[in-house]
């Protein structure tokens, strides 16, 4: 396997240190070439830790007034969590296990928000025992559970304000109506003696229309005034997730500008604590997947497409060693359309209609369909960038196919920046 001159330990994970900035594609090529020499065809996930810092710096540049609480559900990789923790990031956890994962790295309870509006009762008790106080709710039954189980809880009312065009809208399941139910829930909280400290929303994962944030902030302002009228402090605004992870037609900078303008309009010179729960924003870009072609077979083009225009008479079906039951579960659960490319320049220019299947015996295990690609050979590699969000977190080993092996890399410069972090020790 590739020999790094220097390794560092983050937790108990070995991280390869490079003298220069990480180039993900080049690094993947080096690793794949080394694996080829050993006839090792297992898939791997390159994890570029410099990229995490880059994203964190981008956040701080565009939205310096908003504290990010990374949504752990997106990817529970411990090194990713430790790097974010070392930078001072907070964490959004949605279950007992996520709370324990994050606190197991040394993060203190006051840097967590338990952002699941419908919580398991024993998990609420667990949160109380670990002194996690900040948590969301959007219904009266949850308030009654909290009143009984967690007297120290600091509740944040989640309202439903949605970008209906988001890749994964969430408001069918969560969020109180900001006009009708919101004020009623604040009143009930006051009657039950439950402390409410703010308002939260999630406009939908993969937001396409930034005006949803403005809309939500306007509702948040009204509800803060109602809550203050009931005697609550209302000093937290939680703007949820929805921020893009990779290049997107609605870039992060545009969303950030809309949010800054809306904050100026509805919360000018506010002393409130502003937070958000970005998931894919941090997790997508640092992870690149390299999958090996374990089988390739020539087929008539009509087996792949009925529309034979420009397709020639034959095409190829490829079988790779990661699929929909593994990292590519994002195709099912996250409406993702991953696009792979040959890892190396294969030097063959002619393109054929191709299908890329995952390795299992299920025909639902389809990674890419009707793709034009150079002819590939068994044993060659495909490269999929931006594979860190909602991929490994829900992947299985169905049919006995292993998940890709993570390989962590960072530059010397990054290690210099984080190793003496005052927020966490490695
Ligand atoms: C409550 C909550 N916060 C944050 C997130 C993260 O969203 P995103 O990955 O779009 O940033 C999610 C995703 O489902 C969520 O449910």
Q: What key phrases describe this protein's structure?
A:
426 residues; alpha/beta; Lyase, Ornithine Decarboxylase, Chain A, domain 1; ten-stranded mixed sheet; eight-stranded parallel sheet; pyridoxal phosphate; ornithine decarboxylase; De-COase2_pyr-phos_BS; polyamine biosynthesis; lyase
- Count of DSSP H/I helices: 13
Largest sheet: 10 strands, mixed
Shape: globular
Give the integer mean of the pLDDT values: 95
- Bound molecule kinds, no repeats: pyridoxal-5'-phosphate
* Assigned CATH superfamily of the largest domain: Alanine racemase
Question: What does this molecule look like?
Answer:
With 426 residues, this protein is of the alpha/beta class. The protein has 2 domains: 6-47 and 287-412, Lyase, Ornithine Decarboxylase, Chain A, domain 1; 50-283, TIM Barrel. 31% of the residues lie in helices and 24% in strands. The longest helix has 19 residues, at 211-229. Pyridoxal-5'-phosphate binds at residues 71, 74, 92, 115, 170, 202, 205, 240-243, 277-281. Residues 296-388 form the Orn/DAP/Arg decarboxylase 2 C-terminal domain. The active site is at residue 361. It is an enzyme of class 4 (lyase). Its EC number is 4.1.1.17.
